[in-house]
Amino acid sequence: MKETKPSLYTLSFFLLCLSNFLFSASFSMIIPELPDYLASLGGKEYIGYTIALFTLAAGLSRPFSGKLTDHVGRIPIMAFGSLVCFICGGLYPLLHTVQGFLFLRFIHGMSTGTKPTATAAYVADVIPEDRRGEAQGSLGIFTATGMSIGPAIGSFLASTYGLDQMFYISSVFALASILILSRMKETLPPTMKSRLKLSLFRIGWKDVFEPKIIPVFWIMLFVSFSAGAMITLIPDTSKIVGWTNKGLYFTIYTVSSIVIRFFFSKASDQYGRIPVLIFGCFMLSLSMFLLVFSANSYLMIISAIIYGVAWGFNTPTLAAWTNDLGDKNHMGRAMATMYIALEAGIGIGAYVSGEIYQGIPNHIPIPFLIAGLLSLLAFLLLWKKKQAWTYGI
Length: 393
Description:
This protein is mainly alpha-helical.
């Protein structure tokens, strides 16, 4: 008799996906409006900091979230990440200075520095090795849907009801994400659990970096620069080409990413992590090079579609590759290392883009050119190292 594989789609996995959807919608909802909001406070020259500070805090919190995930539990750390989103969403309308806004952006970044790490570790606990790519792709559909719907909802709320209401609704989404987690079962084995104590916050180098996933670290670092450039510059680029909804590019690329994950979630399980990443990095570089010449809506749309295809392949594959290579007893640390590379790439991309842009439209193509070259570098590195970096799958 043919052996039947257990279903991925258990209640716990569905609840995890739903929580991720709400969490992603919560923090992405406000992104398209942040440049104009900061400018209205008198801080237009700090636009690059809106994402850079967010990702800096996320990167700094990764080592702590990885260690706490491996000792305190997956669910408490996921809940903490959503709690930060909930609190920050309610505080944005109360802070009306540039300094207050930037400080809150830094605190808000702790949310994505904690919840995704614990979420990825939870997936590694409950999913068989030969279906990790599929599981990460399925989870990514919900995450990408939240990130797609979030900006569109945010722009609609801001234009219809005002920025304060947009911030409050984002807070409600985060609260719902927390409530869902209460219905899930902890997967960290009792033998590995310990109570929350001060010693867990003492971080050494071994808590910061998982050396087994060095290949993942470099590829993630190179490709995520594009995300920082895109998040920082697309809102103003959209206005230049005449789009009234600054979240439209985000919506198009995320819908494209969802479609790719829906039909090709098993691709890296079937064909290998490296071949899929080679294709994804090539598509990402193509998307960025198109933005260098994006003088009209058509090129913007094509770029957004290709960008979605690239991330639809890259994100779940890099997460599955991390699961393959990481220490099974320290999966939180392995996922934290991957996300440190993600946040570092996004933060550097956002900061560099903001510094180059400085509100001058003619400077916009330069960061996109840099992002395209870095993605091409990742493509070449994978091509050259494909034999050495192929570990079993």
